[in-house]
Amino acid sequence: MYAYDKYDQAMVDARVEEFRDQARRRLEGTLSEEQFKPLRLMNGLYLQLHAYMLRVAIPYGTLNSRQMIALADIADKYDRGYGHFTTRQNIQYNWIKLEDAADILADLSRVEMHAIQTSGNCIRNISSDHFAGAAHDELVDPRPYAELLRQWSSFHPEFTYLPRKFKICVIASEKDRAAMRLHDIGIQIVRNDNGEIGARFYVGGGMGRTPMIAPMIRSFVALDQLVTYAEACLRVYNRYGRRDNKYKARIKILVHELGAEEYTRQVEEEFAHLLDVGVEPPRAELERIKEFFADPAFEDGPKTLDRSDPDFALWVDRNTHRHKHDSYVSAVISLKPVGGIPGDASGDQMRVMAQLAEQYSFDEMRITHTQNVVLPHVRIADLHALWTALDQAGLGAPNLDTIEDMIACPGLDYCSLANARSIPLAQRISERFGASGKTAKLGELKLKISGCINACGHHHAGHIGILGVDRKGVENYQLSLGGSEAEDVSLAKITGPGFTENGVIEAVETVTDVYLQRREGEERFLDTYRRIGMEPFKEALYD
Fold first, then answer.
1. Quick check: 199 and 226 in contact, CB under 8 A?
2. Partners of 503 in the beta sheet?
3. Same domain for 377 and 492?
4. What are the tens digits of pLDDT across the range 252-300?
């Protein structure tokens, strides 16, 4: 994984001291909240319902045991003993005191971490496939390109104050495990008909109150022009993006209103200009970065395992992913125990994961956008020992991609923007299906819950999506069906009138019953929905 050089470290250390002075002046009252707000946002600090929330960057979701231990220490020292892993592969702390914030940033800097550009109208944390560098189906490891983009976008003078926040994703396989086309810019590394490897650009995706799937604007960009093309996309957006209306400020609105063809024409024009100017980093910089992502020292070993323990076999089937080396797998640690808060991990659990990563996965972990943790390189021979340790720590839930493995935002329990609670609803649904035994029958079923229209819980992309809304001061929940964030990307459609909290739990049960009654063969829920349409579900819900 990438390691800071002296310039990285100096930049982060300087930002810590700059923010320390800003926070001191806010505490003394010489800075008003209005003056302080843009400063704290550029350092990942939000003011929520009960306290400050700090969002820490985990670039493309990759971290090591030393960094995870530091995150655990911060949870115990400055928060209430836990952290919340997010859908941008980051971590958030919900109970931060302003007087501690600079000290937390200093602690992060000592382990090559920071909170820079995790909020504000700038280019946010670059995300990627959580199996990058390990997956059997990728062309190349996309993380060096994500890191190059991270360095290009950090403190970029032209893109520090964009019309709105901006999110970029990079993947390198046909299988989309990172919701690539629901980003402002989605980059897929591909091979063209001549056998050359380059980048395919999708621009103008996003969720929120106006969800859109990004159209492809260029099928192939040479990899040594990738940053230049990204800059061209940003320049057109920065030039014409709405700044008078935050609800129409995202690039998806610009691409929609201009039309993909006209937006592409302007990007191509800007791209030609930038090629003449020369903004691409030197090739030597990419080669330097690539060295940090070289494969660890894989060893040949057993390629099969003893499946006589049914609990272990179930966990292997659900929570491991095929590796590019046939003596290894990638193991997913579920942060979704039955009745738990999706994405939360205690300080002690973080330390367990750190120790297991050091012992079994070449000291490397990944955060997934589905709020779980991956050990990317685990020997098949070590799987049973790993599972045993995870199970003892309460981290062995065998529920990846099931209805229990749901995404949920913090909702009204923490967020000042939320209209409804997400966490209690997620807990109750998890308990309901965990107790009923239906999880196994349902198979792959992705449930996503958002507490407001900003869609931090990705409800638009759920096979089943739930959106919390305010109905005359009462929490109400809209139910949607048919979304997907994968390579078969689609946006969910609302079933009809909303439900109470109890009602929406019953509604989810009803929807799953219709699926079980109507599915054919090995169809997933999403396949059945696409085959039979919305009407059978609506009839069961509202008749």
1. yes
2. none
3. no
4. 999 999 999 999 999 999 999 999 999 999 999 999 999 999 999 999 9
